Amino acid sequence: MKIVIIGGGLIGLLTAYELARGGATVQLLERGRIGRESSWAGGGILSPLYPWRYPDGVTALARWSQAVYPPLAAELCAAGGVDPEWTGSGMLMLDASDLAAAEAWARRFDYRLEVLAGEALRRCEPALAATAAPALWMAGVAQVRNPRLVQAAHRSLLRQGVAVEEECAVGDLLLRAGRVAGVRTSRGEFAADAVVLAAGAWSGELLAVQGIRPAIRPVRGQMLLFQGAPGTLSRIILGARHYIIPRRDGRVLVGSTMEEVGFDASTTAAAREELREAAFRLVPALADFALERHWAGLRPGSPSGVPYIGEHPQLAGLFINSGHFRNGVVMAPASARLLADLVLGREPILDPAPYAPQA
After folding, report:
1. DSSP type of residue 208
2. d(Cα 287, Cα 279) in Å, to the nearest integer?
3. How sure is the predictor about 131, in pLDDT bands with cuts at 50, 70 and 90?
4. CB neighbours of 43 closer than 8 A, spacing ≥ 6?
5. φ, ψ dihedrals at 106, nearest 5°
6. Which CATH superfamily includes the segment(s) 91-139+217-301?
7. For 136-174, what is each residue's pLDDT tens digit?
8. Nearest by Cα to 326 from 44, 17, 33, 96
9. Is 296 exposed, middle or buried (0-12, 13-18, 19+ CB in 10 A)?
10. Which fold has domain 1-87+142-216+303-359?
11. Residue 130 pLDDT > 90, yes or no?
12. CA atoms within 13 A on the CB side of 320
């Protein structure tokens, strides 16, 4: 079975990885450079932010992925020679206003959730600014360094023999006998038995060519990177609107804005100041560190944050794996495996109904 995948972000890469392992011949096409859009720009937290505030479909994908991430990271490192730096940081969430909902969610899905305050909170993360309010602690939350994860997945695909084309923009779908039979690109036509659309924020634009416009839209997020020192911060910290992520080498990420500005991926001075102020308020020690980088990425927004995974009801042979919004990294392994199950006709790992693309 020959399959063309549109999109070389983490979702497309891991979907190609799963399909190739399942015996398919895979061709991956990326309009720009591999993994350089939202997969590169995000923070790599392996949990939805305040996860009980999402529909159950998000939790199901995240939970399956969280269990497989440690062996997957090791496998990709061994195959591609790049360590994704899976790290069990835990996550402190400072907005405990919906504690009852959080605890009910944790019981339903068997997550460990603790309420910390006072000395217990200070012991958990000494760098956190003093606060009298309690926080919610999930010790089991981990992170990956998402640019390194993308690099490892890309190298692993090449070792598997997957054909990867960069700077190859897809303009249209090829239709034969009422079904999708390939794609038309800036480098010519590519025939396929099935096509997987995993183009992130650009997925809706590609479908619009066919007169179909799913509710996938670009949502800009801006991020800062500080040159921290190892040991300054050890926990992921989530405030009401912003998060802080410590990397192994001491660098610290601060994010993220939520901006409806179309396909504008530029950065702004206003966002830089907003993120700096949030960072210093949550972790005062960050004021002593230099700002290394400021960037923006475009997330594939969807109405409720639940991605579309499955065959399009109007275009046989076209499968969609997109719309992951803020949680693409944590949902990627499960999304890729579920999509591969559906394409290859295997028993799916999860009930696909919550993710079925709508007409």
Report:
1. H
2. 8
3. confident
4. 143, 146, 223, 243, 245, 253, 255, 256, 329
5. -60, -40
6. D-Amino Acid Oxidase, subunit A, domain 2 (3.30.9.10)
7. 999 999 999 999 999 999 999 999 999 999 999 999 999
8. 44
9. buried
10. FAD/NAD(P)-binding domain (3.50.50)
11. no
12. 32
The boundaries of every CATH 3.50.50.60 domain in the chain are 1-87+142-216+303-359
Give the pair of three-digit tokens for residue 355. Answer: 């993710």
Place of tokens 């034969």: 176
**176 contacts: CB under 8 Å, gap ≥ 6:** none
Averaged pLDDT for residues 1-25: 97
CA dist., res. 117 & res. 235, Å (int): 15
**264 burial type by CB count under 10 A (0-12 exposed, 13-18 middle, 19+ buried):** exposed
Q: Which two tokens stand for residue 10?
A: 């983490």
What's residue 133's pLDDT?
Answer: 87
Residue 256: cis peptide before it, omega within 30 degrees of 0? yes
Amino acid at 149: L
Q: Crossing angle of helices 99-109/56-80, nearest 10°?
A: 60
